[in-house]
Amino acid sequence: MKKHLPLFMMMLIWATHTMAQSEASLSGSVSDQTGYLPGVNVLVMETSQGAPTDLNGKFEISNLPPGKATLRVSYLGFETVTREVDLKAGSNSIGDIKLTEASGDLEEYVIQGTMVPSQLKAISIKKNSLAIMDVIAADAIGKLPDRNAAEAVQRLPAASVNRYHGEANQVSVRGTPYAWSSTLYNGTRLPSSNVNGNRNALLDAIPAEMIQYVQLSKAITPDMEGDAIGGSINFVTRSAPQDRMLNVSAAGGYNQKSQNGSYNASIVYGDRFFNDKFGIILAASIWNRNFSSDEIVLDYNLNMAVPAERYSINTMNAKRYYGTRRTTALNAALEYEFNADQKLFARIVQDQFDDIRPVYEAYYEFEENRYRYSNRESEYRTYLKGYEFGGVHHLATNFKMDWKLSSYESYYNLETPPNMPSDQKGLPIAQFYQDLEGDFGGRSADGHVYNIFDAPDGKGITPLNFDPDLTNENDFMDPNRLTLQQLIIYQIDQRDRDNVAQMNFTWDVNPDFSLKAGGKFRFKENEAQQTPMVFLPNARLGIPGSAPLRTLSEFQRMDFPAPGTFFQELNGQFDALAIQPMPQSQTFEIFSPEFMEENDINNYSPASNATTTYNGTEDAYAGYIMGTYNITDQLQVIGGFRNEFTKLTMNSFAYNDETDEVNPVSRDNDYNAFLPMFHVKYSPKEQLNLRAAYTRTFSRPNFGSLSPSESIDTSTGIPRISRGNTELLPTFSNNFDLMGEWFLEDIGMITAGIFYKDIDDFIFTDLSAETIDGTNFLVSQPKNLESAYLVGFEMGITKRFSSLPGFWSGFGVDVNYSRIHSELEVPRLDEEGAVVSTDITSLPTQSSNLFNTSLFYEKNGLMLRLAGNFRGASVETINQNLGPDFYIHVDNTFTVDFSAAYSITDKIKAFAEIRNLTNEPYVQYLGDNKDRITSSEWYSTNGQAGIRFIIF
């Protein structure tokens, strides 16, 4: 069969080419004074055939009769253009069509460069898309206080973000887990170097300046990646402009908690050469910000044998993050148009995200009756680099082929401490202990410490208003009594490489029916390591003749950074813990072979550490076919299927604790995904779309979840074990969507819709307790559950009050709201694995309420925008055996941001941004009591001001 396939393709192309010889096709582009315009309606009036312009402002219309024809070009807010053309048999190019702003109120908005041009583009793309899609354009991203790709996406309906130390880095769509949304870069899924081995790309490494459009598809079509239960987020990078351009921007800012400044700058240059055949665009960006956050972390004794004691508190950790984040990025795009029928293109990306953050941790260890103090020097680096090369070729007037080869790599690693050998690099943590002579107050009669509302005898603590109530007043945290007891180098390396080849064929069979088919082959390599190397002083182990333990006071120290802001939200109740930490140079000196030899500190890492590394290969073979049929001018049907076969091999090591032997282990996990899809789009009026869709999508298990390895972390209060599960199945979902879109005359819209997802083989991370050699561990391991469902409603409105008189005509609102409900059945098992009861809960990370709102003012070159983002409470982690009383939840969060811009001239614009005005903490809690916190983190307000120049 294979040897006949090329012959068949050649015959198909020849037959299509022969049929098309007597017909004509028409191509061209549409632009305004700022560049190419997407979503412009282009219509051949004699035949009523037409097409919208694509993201690059280009259009193609095929199956036209030769002869004279009238072309009608219309776009909201612009004067309609008609042009006479004389179509010859074969390909016809009309070149570029320039549109001018319509006279009236909209002309003022467009010329002054407010939000209107970006909303025009976004609304036009959404209106003409085949998928159910939301869009945000690059110039809108620049007008919001969003400095990375994830923060830009959170403004779209039914999208929410995870914040890591105050900065968004992952996106959830419609309340689904982060890994359920496919993150694409120009249509190709990004590799991920997520520290937990997850597939969701970390978007804080992608600056917003690199993005031209963000497309959020909530109901995909067969030509999109199928592993997208939540949706597909496509970041479209900048392409070569029509005319020469050079834009620069520079800004400076301030962080209230770190009491330090920040800066960012970007430059974008584009041009065309060789009679406009060769186009190029270069975009470079740097964003350097100093940041700080304070966090309380409580570990509970979930592994206690007595159920009543499981709410007792093992440790409370008050810690400060204080450091610098730096994002540097370079994007380049090249294209060469031989003619209207042949084009080649290439794109290059090089992003680096440096997260340099010392962490100072002070533990109250209630069960051990001691203090623990940690100095850690975190210098994480995330890289995203790669290239793609492809072409678009018209093999006939109605038959097109496009192809692309790409290679992308993402990796995350630490190159510290600098004095250690290359195979002993990672996150250095120096830990000091101080035993109490007396005791912490607040203990209950059973000897444990509880939150006051959990205490069996009413005697407990209040973490957000904490008093250690020491029985011995001399038991304060003291550098003279804190002794160095443990050094840990936590080796955290993640690397993900994708080599992808893809090809698509589009055949416009007749004016009403087109076929599209293609294939994609992705060859992935994934490597990861989460290895804790443990170094202990011989003196701690009681070995005679050992060098004495060193105290913190013996080392070089520095002033505590910005001490006046340390837990300022709690009125400084932890001020006594803000002791002078070691500077980075001193910490790195401790982590050196010379220091360890001098102080009799030796490597006591367990032989089982080999099990904490894994690598795998994943080959994905995908093919699809889809048809688009215009039943009438108002009714369009899109249907087809996609098939993805995944071949996976995971390699790690197994440890035999009886023989201390480490042996390699390899596991295969192959599966197939058949994904039918069907869309109906009905437009009874020009300004109205009604959409319905059925799609089947899936989610691959995370690499870390599939690993046959396990990792052990002893750096926190309770020792933890993370295990993989080689038997995991992919999660599948049948998705049903119904959506209405009403487009307003004054560049606004009203949308509303409902959606339902029927989910099989849901993957969750279970928490359980396990005792190994007398040590109690908290064990996390992914597992499959049989079924779940999610149902929701979403609505949005963007409205300008341009009909109001004078000053008031500049006001507008942008609001969207989602209400989501899900149910997941979690069986509880006895020791033999039999089901004894079933709990009903929501999907992890799924919030019942998501809400975005902004009030804006745009007039006379001034733009003011106050934006709020609300994410409701959600389950974060499920404990299968202990039940809902021990699930970890995330509390509601509501952030408010402000941005302003003023056009000094057509070429110069000043702007200012203030983020996190409400300074809301990010809170997690255990069970159903929001006061039983497991974590509470504060970030403070920050902002910046700057200027943008359009040089030409």
SSE topology:
Elements lengths: L4 H16 L3 E9 L2 E2 L4 E4 L4 E4 L5 E7 L2 E8 L6 E7 L2 E9 L6 H7 L4 H13 L3 E6 H4 L7 H5 L5 E6 L2 E7 L7 E5 L2 E2 L21 E9 L11 E7 L7 E11 L4 E14 L4 E23 L12 E27 L2 E24 L4 E27 L2 E16 L12 E9 L47 E28 L2 E25 L46 H7 L2 H6 L2 E3 L9 E18 L4 E22 L4 E8 L2 E15 L2 E12 L3 H4 L3 E4 L6 E4 L7 E14 L3 E25 L2 E26 L10 E19 L5 E7 L7 E11 L2 E10 L2 E4 L10 E3 L2 E11 L4 E8 L6 E5 L6 E6 L3 E9 L2
Parallel strand pairs: 1-8, 12-15, 33-36
Antiparallel strand pairs: 1-2, 1-5, 3-4, 3-6, 6-7, 9-14, 10-11, 12-13, 14-15, 16-17, 16-47, 17-18, 18-19, 18-46, 19-20, 20-21, 21-22, 21-23, 22-24, 23-24, 24-25, 25-26, 25-27, 27-28, 28-29, 28-30, 30-31, 31-34, 32-33, 34-35, 35-36, 36-37, 37-38, 37-39, 39-40, 40-43, 41-42, 42-45, 43-44, 44-47, ...
Protein model, in words:
By secondary structure, this protein is mainly beta. The protein contains eight helices and 47 strands. A hairpin with a 2-residue loop joins β19 and β20. The chain is globular, with a radius of gyration of 30 Å. The chain starts with a helix and ends with a strand.
Low-confidence regions = 1-9, 142-146
Could you estimate the helical fraction of the residues in percent? under 10%
Mean model confidence by pLDDT: 88
Number of strands: 47
Structural class: mainly beta
- Please count the helical segments: 8
Shape: globular
Determine the N-to-C terminus distance.
Answer: 57 Å
Radius of gyration: 30 Å
Oligomer: single chain
Query: What proportion strand?
Result: over 45%
Largest sheet data: 32 strands, mixed
